[in-house]
Design brief:
By secondary structure, the protein is mainly beta. Helix content is 3%, strand content 37%. A hairpin with a 2-residue loop joins strand 9 and strand 10.
């Protein structure tokens, strides 16, 4: 009997069907008689064709096939085999998907390096995941993850990113971003958020924000009834609030408050004006107004005062003495 004999002639009839049925499940064995199997040897193959199609040419070519192909030379300890899935459109069927002996699936690539590798060629849409329900999500887990807890979810045109089964970040259909839990932080220096610009420009980059405390001091052995300071830094703009309630001035400097949390920028145009002191009592000189002025290229504040209405402002005047109490805030440009 010739191997080329049509199955129709073998079984009879023009449209024969083959049914294999056994009590323990039918087995179809496709085998090679090759005694030396090497890389690329085909162990078995199923071709799908339409040999009687009247259109001829491409219509008569193999439309699809499934092949079992050796991945290397067989040996006593090796029979690595991949399954190759081929399909055709207007030519003989070509490889479209490969399942390797390691269980790696390649779509659009014949040598996948990970469990699932997809190469869409010139089609920019690489993959699409769709649900017929109101909502679809992709779950990512390792051996320590909460079951179904780390996911990317879509509802309509809105997206939600969850970890540990808790929504963390949501992007609305209009583009609004909602950080639902946790904080945004940059783990390396030199990062920021660009505001009010269409490109990454330094002038529009907010790259620093900080809140904290500082200790205002006169720099000597003075003692205090209260000594406290706080600050907020946004970019290079620093605003400080402080209270110095002197008990005994000792060797403290009566003209300067030291200890600013950041050095003042070395440019007088940014620092010529301080901020009005909100409360003061028992200062060393009789004044009608008193201002705190950060000094350029230092971490100190000097004081400007007016002794009477209509007179010029005087700076570097002795302000502090025993029992002086000052509440103030100042804003300056940091170095």
């Amino acid at each position: 009997m010739s191997r080329a004999r049509d199955i129709a002639n073998l079984i009879g009839g023009t449209t024969p069907d083959i049914i294999l049925k056994t009590a323990d499940g039918a087995i179809l064995n496709l085998q090679t008689s090759d005694t030396t199997v090497t890389d690329g040897s085909v162990l078995g193959k199923i071709n799908f064709t339409a040999p009687d199609e009247g259109s001829g040419t491409d219509a008569l070519l193999v439309g699809a096939s499934i092949e079992a192909v050796a991945e290397g030379t067989f040996a006593a300890d090796n029979n690595a085999t991949e399954l190759v899935f081929k399909t055709g459109a207007s030519a003989a069927a070509a490889t479209k998907m490969v399942l390797t002996s390691a269980g790696k699936l390649g779509i659009g690539t014949s040598s996948p390096s990970v469990a699932l590798e997809v190469n869409s060629g010139t089609d920019n849409t690489v993959a699409k995941f769709e649900s017929s329900d109101a909502g679809a999500f992709i779950v990512l887990e390792d051996n320590g993850s909460t079951a179904n807890g780390n996911r990317i979810q879509v509802e309509g045109d809105a997206m939600t990113f969850s970890t540990a089964d808790t929504a963390r970040l949501a992007i609305g259909s209009g583009g609004d971003i909602d950080v639902e839990t946790g904080d945004i932080f940059f783990s390396t220096a030199g990062k920021g958020i660009v505001l009010g610009a269409t490109s990454n420009t330094n002038a529009n980059t907010l790259d620093d924000y900080e809140e904290g405390t500082w200790t205002p001091t006169l720099g000597g052995n003075e003692s205090y009834n209260n000594q406290a300071g706080t600050y907020i830094k946004i970019g290079q703009k620093v605003t400080v609030w402080y209270n110095q309630a002197i008990n005994a001035i000792g060797t403290g400097n009566p003209k300067l408050t030291s200890g600013l949390p950041f050095t003042v920028f070395n440019n007088i145009t940014q620092n010529v004006n301080g901020s009005q002191i909100s409360y003061f009592t028992n200062v060393n000189t009789n004044v009608v107004s008193l201002s705190a002025c950060p000094r350029q290229n230092t971490s100190t504040i000097r004081y400007a005062m007016m002794a009477a209405a209509g007179v010029n402002t005087t700076v570097n005047t002795d302000i502090f003495k025993n029992s002086t109490d000052v509440y103030a805030h100042a804003t300056y440009y940091s170095a």
